[in-house]
């Protein structure tokens, strides 16, 4: 009886962990900043990505700033589930990690760590499709260029970058910055928030603890 009770609690914990989140972060990264670091980068086997913001991930989060991860080890990534999306993902969700690869390891990591924590809402195919659909709604590069902010190695104020994205997308973004080999701080990632259905952008309940200076570089790619 005790063993059955413990098993029930264990199963309840697994179900709760898969269902219990408050919103998603939809994260796009600038490849020029990813590659312009001491770590450097490797282009995918399909070649150098286009000079556009690309998808990093769709991450379930809690309102207090914490997040669930690796919620269902029984539901591993299966590349067959996204065969029809693969070409689109190679363009808009490419891997830049070394060694050069086809992206499957990167996408598998995103599903196993983050996607499994939203499986009550989205199965594997729907998870990746939702991210691609959100990407179509949030053209970060266009929003910045419309405001005269170009990837030209110049420095721009963080506030002007945020305001440009808000005007273009309609929602306040969070920014993450990294440093190049010379220690110059550059815009690296843009965070937008999405409701638990994975379909609609919302104002962010909270942002990650991110440290960007008042002005950051927008490196070319």
Automatic annotation (TrEMBL):
CDD domains: RNase_T2_euk
Signal peptide: 1-18
InterPro entries linked to this entry: Ribonuclease_T2_eukaryotic, RNase_T2-like, RNase_T2-like_sf, RNase_T2_His_AS_1, RNase_T2_His_AS_2
Pfam families hit by this protein: Ribonuclease_T2
GO cellular component, one term: extracellular region
Annotated catalytic residues: 56, 110, 114
GO MF: hydrolase activity; ribonuclease T2 activity; RNA binding
Top-rank taxon, per record: Eukaryota
Protein name: Ribonuclease T2 family protein
GO biological process per UniProt: RNA catabolic process
Keywords: Disulfide bond, Endonuclease, Hydrolase, Lyase, Nuclease, Signal
Lineage, uppermost ranks: Eukaryota, Viridiplantae, Streptophyta, Embryophyta, Tracheophyta
Similarity comment: family membership: Belongs to the RNase T2 family.
């Amino acid at each position: 009886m005790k063993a059955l009770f413990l098993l029930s609690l264990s199963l309840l914990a697994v179900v709760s962990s898969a269902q219990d989140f408050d919103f998603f972060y939809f994260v796009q990264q600038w490849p020029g900043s990813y590659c312009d670091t001491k770590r450097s980068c490797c282009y995918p086997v399909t070649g150098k990505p286009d000079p556009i913001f690309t998808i990093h991930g769709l991450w379930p989060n809690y309102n207090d700033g914490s997040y669930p991860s690796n919620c269902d080890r029984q539901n591993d990534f299966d590349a067959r589930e996204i065969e029809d999306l693969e070409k689109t993902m190679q363009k808009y969700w490419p891997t830049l990690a070394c060694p050069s690869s086809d992206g499957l390891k990167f996408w598998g990591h995103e599903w196993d760590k983050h996607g499994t924590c939203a499986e009550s809402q989205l199965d594997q195919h729907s998870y990746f499709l939702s991210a691609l659909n959100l990407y179509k709604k949030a053209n970060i590069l266009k929003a910045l260029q419309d405001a005269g902010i170009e990837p030209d190695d110049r420095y721009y104020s963080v506030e002007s970058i945020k305001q440009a994205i808000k005007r273009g997308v309609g929602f306040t973004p969070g920014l993450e910055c990294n440093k190049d080999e010379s220690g110059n701080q550059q815009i690296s990632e843009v965070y937008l928030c999405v409701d638990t259905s994975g379909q609609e952008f919302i104002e962010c309940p909270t942002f990650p603890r991110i440290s960007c200076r008042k002005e950051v570089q927008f490196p070319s790619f």
